């Protein structure tokens, strides 16, 4: 007993280190990527419809505001991580023009295919690259992009700090990162209302439209487990970003974090 | 919800729905492909940027005008003005005067601003034809003929009402001065102002002479 006693906390610590959250559940870190992949494989086809339905179209305004704050100009190289069905990429493609380029990266092949088909159907082909990539280990050279955006993707990453470090590496000096993500509502009343909507209405919507309540239950849980505004800002700074700030949108339901690499 | 995003989304939707209604606008839009016009219109708290490709993308600019000007390329134009000056911008002959009066600042390629102005000013939409596509020719023609008649009649009635009201106020009740009387009064005030200025000048000279003695 006494022999085992000292090793127990070590084992517990090791187990703790190897676990991560998947919604409210704790899973092995190695499992999270495939579990998230299952979620997105399941919702990819109905992703856009569900986004419009769940947010009553407001997600389009959040994304538009992100693009406004990106300051994209002709000739810029933009990386849209977790770009999903290409909402941001479509806009960036027109803004950077033929002299610039946009790379749509997503770890999930199903989402990437839906995005690629959608953008090609809209005639956007000339300056867009599609890359299946893990945000934690981006397969791009150092100092390569002028702008990196990540909309509603960071909370699904297993090691968020690794992703921010990786983004910092691929950004050019003077470049900026914008992370649009669900966050913590600033008012108590809104928070209660939002909880009720997330845990009672959202899964039912998912069941009704996408025939998948579990994925939308995960969505609600993963939002609650995501770092709050100040914590994420601290993670930006830890990765090396400067002039970090964030703006709460719709009462803090969503926050846009911004940081520069100098 | 960011109000600027809602505004730009609405503007973008409106512009991209209206432009294709004039088949000639495609050529004017093509000429602008790759160009960008940024406008800072006081007192709007943000700038508006119009980027041209096969469509028009409207975005809010949250950077300071100086930052935008510093990053201008040969296909960019940035204007800074105020809401009250906007109507005057329709007359291109007034641009130089507005720039001299510092009511308008133009940086970058002025031709882009002129082309954008032409894109919207030269819009020629056959609304009757547009309506005919969703109804039919007869209904559309009838609706527009009726609309024109109503417009003419309302204009005529408003004109008559305005004249009658003017006569009653000026001639019968004498509640307001006649237009000619107002003009005469303005002229008299101008003459008096000039006389006062002359007298003031003479007094100053007299004062100077007295001081010298």
Automatic annotation (TrEMBL), chain A:
<keyword id="KW-0949">S-adenosyl-L-methionine</keyword>
<keyword id="KW-0474">Menaquinone biosynthesis</keyword>
<dbReference type="GO" id="GO:0008425">
    <property type="term" value="F:2-methoxy-6-polyprenyl-1,4-benzoquinol methyltransferase activity"/>
</dbReference>
<comment type="function">
    <text>Methyltransferase required for the conversion of demethylmenaquinol (DMKH2) to menaquinol (MKH2) and the conversion of 2-polyprenyl-6-methoxy-1,4-benzoquinol (DDMQH2) to 2-polyprenyl-3-methyl-6-methoxy-1,4-benzoquinol (DMQH2).</text>
</comment>
<feature type="binding site">
    <location>
        <position position="106"/>
    </location>
    <ligand>
        <name>S-adenosyl-L-methionine</name>
    </ligand>
</feature>
<feature type="binding site">
    <location>
        <begin position="134"/>
        <end position="135"/>
    </location>
    <ligand>
        <name>S-adenosyl-L-methionine</name>
    </ligand>
</feature>
<protein>
    <recommendedName>
        <fullName>Ubiquinone/menaquinone biosynthesis C-methyltransferase UbiE</fullName>
        <ecNumber>2.1.1.163</ecNumber>
        <ecNumber>2.1.1.201</ecNumber>
    </recommendedName>
</protein>
<comment type="pathway">
    <text>Quinol/quinone metabolism; menaquinone biosynthesis; menaquinol from 1,4-dihydroxy-2-naphthoate: step 2/2.</text>
</comment>
<dbReference type="GO" id="GO:0043770">
    <property type="term" value="F:demethylmenaquinone methyltransferase activity"/>
</dbReference>
<keyword id="KW-0831">Ubiquinone biosynthesis</keyword>
<keyword id="KW-0808">Transferase</keyword>
<comment type="similarity">
    <text>Belongs to the class I-like SAM-binding methyltransferase superfamily. MenG/UbiE family.</text>
</comment>
<feature type="binding site">
    <location>
        <position position="85"/>
    </location>
    <ligand>
        <name>S-adenosyl-L-methionine</name>
    </ligand>
</feature>
<dbReference type="InterPro" id="IPR004033">
    <property type="entry name" value="UbiE/COQ5_MeTrFase"/>
</dbReference>
<keyword id="KW-0489">Methyltransferase</keyword>
<dbReference type="GO" id="GO:0032259">
    <property type="term" value="P:methylation"/>
</dbReference>
<comment type="pathway">
    <text>Cofactor biosynthesis; ubiquinone biosynthesis.</text>
</comment>
<feature type="region of interest" description="Disordered">
    <location>
        <begin position="1"/>
        <end position="24"/>
    </location>
</feature>
<dbReference type="Pfam" id="PF01209">
    <property type="entry name" value="Ubie_methyltran"/>
</dbReference>
<dbReference type="InterPro" id="IPR029063">
    <property type="entry name" value="SAM-dependent_MTases_sf"/>
</dbReference>
<dbReference type="InterPro" id="IPR023576">
    <property type="entry name" value="UbiE/COQ5_MeTrFase_CS"/>
</dbReference>
TrEMBL record, chain B:
<keyword id="KW-0831">Ubiquinone biosynthesis</keyword>
<comment type="pathway">
    <text>Cofactor biosynthesis; ubiquinone biosynthesis.</text>
</comment>
<keyword id="KW-0963">Cytoplasm</keyword>
<feature type="domain" description="SCP2">
    <location>
        <begin position="15"/>
        <end position="121"/>
    </location>
</feature>
<comment type="function">
    <text>Required for ubiquinone (coenzyme Q) biosynthesis. Binds hydrophobic ubiquinone biosynthetic intermediates via its SCP2 domain and is essential for the stability of the Ubi complex. May constitute a docking platform where Ubi enzymes assemble and access their SCP2-bound polyprenyl substrates.</text>
</comment>
<comment type="similarity">
    <text>Belongs to the UbiJ family.</text>
</comment>
<dbReference type="Pfam" id="PF02036">
    <property type="entry name" value="SCP2"/>
</dbReference>
<dbReference type="InterPro" id="IPR038989">
    <property type="entry name" value="UbiJ"/>
</dbReference>
<dbReference type="InterPro" id="IPR003033">
    <property type="entry name" value="SCP2_sterol-bd_dom"/>
</dbReference>
<protein>
    <recommendedName>
        <fullName>Ubiquinone biosynthesis accessory factor UbiJ</fullName>
    </recommendedName>
</protein>
């Amino acid at each position: 007993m006494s022999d085992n006693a000292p090793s127990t906390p070590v084992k517990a610590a090791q187990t703790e280190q190897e676990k991560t959250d998947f919604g409210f559940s704790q899973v092995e870190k190695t499992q999270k990527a495939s579990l998230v992949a299952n979620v997105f494989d399941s919702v990819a086809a109905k992703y856009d419809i569900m986004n419009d339905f769940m947010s009553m179209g407001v997600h389009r305004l959040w994304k538009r505001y992100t693009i406004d704050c990106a300051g994209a100009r002709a000739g810029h190289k933009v990386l849209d991580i977790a770009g999903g069905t290409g909402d941001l990429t479509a806009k960036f493609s027109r803004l950077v023009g033929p002299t610039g380029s946009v790379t749509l990266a997503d770890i999930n092949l199903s989402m990437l295919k839906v995005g690629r088909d959608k953008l090609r159907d809209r005639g956007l082909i000339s300056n867009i690259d599609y890359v299946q990539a893990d945000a934690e280990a981006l397969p791009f050279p150092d100092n390569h992009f002028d702008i990196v955006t990540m909309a509603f993707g960071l909370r699904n990453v297993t090691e968020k700090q690794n992703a921010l470090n990786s983004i910092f590496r691929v950004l050019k000096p003077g470049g900026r990162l914008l992370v649009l993500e669900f966050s913590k509502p600033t008012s108590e009343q809104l928070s209660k209302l939002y909880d009720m909507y997330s845990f009672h209405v959202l899964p039912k919507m998912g069941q009704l439209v996408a025939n998948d309540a579990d994925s939308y239950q995960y969505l609600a849980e993963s939002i609650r487990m995501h770092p709050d505004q100040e914590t994420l800002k601290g993670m930006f700074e830890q990765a090396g970003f400067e002039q970090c700030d964030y703006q709460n949108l719709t009462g803090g339901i969503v926050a846009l974090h911004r940081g520069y690499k100098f | 919800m960011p109000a600027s995003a809602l505004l730009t989304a609405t503007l973008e939707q409106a512009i991209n729905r209206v432009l294709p209604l004039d088949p000639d606008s495609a050529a004017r839009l093509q000429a602008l492909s790759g160009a960008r016009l940024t406008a800072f219109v006081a007192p709007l708290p943000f700038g508006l940027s119009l980027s041209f490709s096969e469509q028009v993308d409207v975005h809010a600019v949250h950077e300071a005008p100086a930052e935008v000007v510093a990053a201008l390329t040969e296909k960019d134009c940035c204007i800074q003005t105020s809401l009250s000056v906007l109507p005057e911008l329709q007359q291109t002959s007034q641009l130089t005067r507005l720039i001299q009066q510092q009511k308008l600042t133009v940086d970058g390629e002025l031709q882009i601003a002129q082309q954008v102005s032409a894109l919207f000013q030269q819009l020629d939409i056959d609304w009757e034809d547009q309506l005919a596509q969703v109804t039919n020719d007869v209904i559309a023609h009838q609706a527009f003929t009726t609309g024109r008649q109503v417009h003419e009649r309302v204009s005529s009635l408003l004109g008559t009402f305005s004249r009658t009201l003017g006569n009653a106020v000026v001639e019968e009740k004498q509640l307001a001065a006649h237009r000619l009387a107002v003009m005469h009064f303005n002229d008299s005030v101008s003459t008096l102002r000039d006389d006062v200025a002359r007298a003031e000048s003479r007094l100053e000279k007299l004062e100077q002479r007295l001081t010298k003695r």
